From TrEMBL:
<dbReference type="GO" id="GO:0046872">
    <property type="term" value="F:metal ion binding"/>
</dbReference>
<dbReference type="GO" id="GO:0005737">
    <property type="term" value="C:cytoplasm"/>
</dbReference>
<keyword id="KW-0342">GTP-binding</keyword>
<dbReference type="Pfam" id="PF03193">
    <property type="entry name" value="RsgA_GTPase"/>
</dbReference>
<keyword id="KW-0378">Hydrolase</keyword>
<feature type="binding site">
    <location>
        <position position="260"/>
    </location>
    <ligand>
        <name>Zn(2+)</name>
    </ligand>
</feature>
<keyword id="KW-0862">Zinc</keyword>
<feature type="binding site">
    <location>
        <begin position="127"/>
        <end position="130"/>
    </location>
    <ligand>
        <name>GTP</name>
    </ligand>
</feature>
<protein>
    <recommendedName>
        <fullName>Small ribosomal subunit biogenesis GTPase RsgA</fullName>
        <ecNumber>3.6.1.-</ecNumber>
    </recommendedName>
</protein>
<dbReference type="InterPro" id="IPR030378">
    <property type="entry name" value="G_CP_dom"/>
</dbReference>
<comment type="subunit">
    <text>Monomer. Associates with 30S ribosomal subunit, binds 16S rRNA.</text>
</comment>
<feature type="domain" description="EngC GTPase">
    <location>
        <begin position="87"/>
        <end position="236"/>
    </location>
</feature>
<keyword id="KW-0547">Nucleotide-binding</keyword>
<dbReference type="GO" id="GO:0042274">
    <property type="term" value="P:ribosomal small subunit biogenesis"/>
</dbReference>
<comment type="similarity">
    <text>Belongs to the TRAFAC class YlqF/YawG GTPase family. RsgA subfamily.</text>
</comment>
<keyword id="KW-0963">Cytoplasm</keyword>
<feature type="binding site">
    <location>
        <position position="267"/>
    </location>
    <ligand>
        <name>Zn(2+)</name>
    </ligand>
</feature>
């Protein structure tokens, strides 16, 4: 029996990094492919109808257990991302430009909520700090210290002049990491500064892994400092659709330390005496966090109204 991390899947063939450092190409056993569940149609008992299709196949990021030259099963997953399709992601490097595009606290909060919902740890990386003057940098840093107090790592980089890059390398050590963030935030530039030669945009890795030039681009993990980096960035655009209004407050982890005397309070603006609102007024919760919460709450209501026409 051998065990290893799945780096890539292409045309049913898995590239697996074994514990001894070698990479092998294997297929998965038939039982790990799509599994169909049937139900009997009541009107015509002879006919079976497909009830559901369960996807039980190993994916990139899984630890596959290999027996007789095939992946027999994979170890229990810690989490799974859909875009990119990777299991067991430890952290998302959330790359946000200090400027160009302008820094948006709302967008940062929206990304954070989505990452927490997936049970993944975010690391906030502020790029293009060379574009700020000293005052602007100081102001942004002091506002972001609130996020550090929430327990998140916040790193500052200038990928053009190699500043802060070693800190990013340290964060990547031993972890499975995916980069995410707005378009134009500087994800590719950052990763190329961290791992010279790495490019999210070219097919270098694809070729190194033996894939043809013209095959469709699949997600791969690239081994780095005892961990792995996903070569396709995660969501760059997102919304609140997968989040219910009742769980939103729990995803604003800084709200958790405050109690609200009202039962079933949704903590939105305009509710007098709401404990969260009071914490904002006494500067314990950052006002922009509360504004983000209210905006997302409204967005969720709007989306659900539109979908279900009530
Ligand atoms: N001045 C400065 N410019 C940067 C920095 N990082 C990236 N840029 C520039 O910002 C632009 C966008 O950078 P990319 O690395 O392509 O951004 P990206 O996040 O990969 O963008 P998408 O592929 O659209 O998601 C490029 O013109 C980069 O040269 C930085 O630290 N400082
Ligand atoms: Zn409340």
């Amino acid at each position: 029996m051998q065990k290893g991390r799945i780096l890539n899947l292409c045309g049913g063939v898995y590239k697996v990094l074994l514990e001894d450092g070698s990479i092998i190409s294997v297929k998965a056993r038939g039982k790990l492919r799509y599994e169909k569940k049937y139900m009997v149609n009541e009107k015509s008992l002879s006919k079976k109808e497909v009830l559901t299709t369960v996807k039980n196949t190993p994916k990139v990021g899984d630890v596959g257990v290999i027996e007789n030259g095939m992946i027999d099963h994979y170890l229990e997953r810690k989490n799974e991302m859909v875009r990119p399709d990777i299991a067991n992601v430890d952290q998302i490097l959330l790359v946000f430009a200090a400027k160009e595009p302008d820094f948006s606290f709302y967008l940062l909060d929206l990304f954070l909520v989505n990452i927490l919902k997936q049970n993944i740890t975010p690391v906030i990386v502020i790029s293009k700090i060379d574009k700020l003057n000293d005052n602007e940098f100081f102001e942004l840093k002091s506002k972001l210290s609130y996020y550090e107090n929430m327990g998140y790592k916040v790193l500052y980089v200038d990928s053009k002049h190699n500043k802060g890059i070693d800190d990013v390398r340290e964060v990547l050590r031993g972890k499975i990491t995916v980069l995410s963030g707005q378009t134009g935030a500087g994800k590719s530039t950052l990763i190329n500064a961290v791992v010279p030669g790495f490019s999210l945009k070219t097919q270098e890795i694809s070729q190194a892994l033996g894939r043809g030039k013209h095959t469709t681009r699949e997600t791969s993990l690239y081994p780095y400092l005892g961990g792995f980096i996903g070569d396709t960035p995660g969501f760059s655009k997102l919304d609140v659709l997968g989040i219910s209004k009742d769980e939103l407050a729990s995803l604003f982890i800084d709200f958790n330390g405050y109690t609200c005397k009202f039962r079933d309070c949704n903590h939105t603006e305009g509710i007098k005496g709401c404990g969260i609102h009071l914490a904002v007024d006494s500067n314990k919760i950052l006002r922009s966090r509360y504004e983000s919460y209210n905006k997302m709450y409204k967005e969720i209501l709007k989306k659900w109204k539109y979908l279900y026409q009530y």
